[in-house]
Amino acid sequence: METLTQEKCEACRADAPKVSDQELAELIRAIPDWNIEVRDGIMQLEKVFPFKTFVAALDFTNKVGILAEDEGHHPALLTEWGKTTVTWWSHKIKGLHRNDFIMAAKTDQLYSG
Ligand SMILES: C[C@H](O)[C@H](O)[C@H]1CNC2=NC(N)=NC(=O)C2=N1
């Protein structure tokens, strides 16, 4: 399997399939530090990134925002003193698509603590 960080997101389509249970089990192994959350019936990938300062958290938040714009796929971002919470899911399909795993892997690449 090509590593997720080398892939680009495909355009979000309402008829795109959610990842299957088997794909989910395989893909989550590539991003083991991410949590699978279900909110209002929507499966999401979530991870908290700790920082020493608010400024560092905000800088990381902006980097993820630039990545999202570049890929055309956008997260929910919660920036607080000392941490940024990043949550990925595909709005159009109300669940998880391979795009969300690609973006989670690329988000990890932006983090330097
Ligand atoms: C037109 C635009 O590309 C689409 O609306 C994109 C924008 N970014 C997106 N981001 C996410 N996470 N899910 C989407 O369905 C989505 N759709």
UniProtKB/TrEMBL annotation:
Pfam families linked: Pterin_4a (PF01329)
Enzyme type, top EC level: lyase
Signal peptide region: none
Entry keyword set: Lyase
Classification via Gene3D superfamilies: Transcriptional coactivator/pterin dehydratase
GO biological process: tetrahydrobiopterin biosynthetic process
Record carries keyword Transmembrane: no
Catalyzed chemical reaction(s): (4aS,6R)-4a-hydroxy-L-erythro-5,6,7,8-tetrahydrobiopterin = (6R)-L-erythro-6,7-dihydrobiopterin + H2O
E.C. number: 4.2.1.96
One MF term in the entry's GO annotations: 4-alpha-hydroxytetrahydrobiopterin dehydratase activity
Family designation: Belongs to the pterin-4-alpha-carbinolamine dehydratase family.
Database matches in HAMAP family: Pterin_4_alpha
Name of the molecule in the record: Putative pterin-4-alpha-carbinolamine dehydratase
Biological source species: Candidatus Thiodiazotropha endoloripes
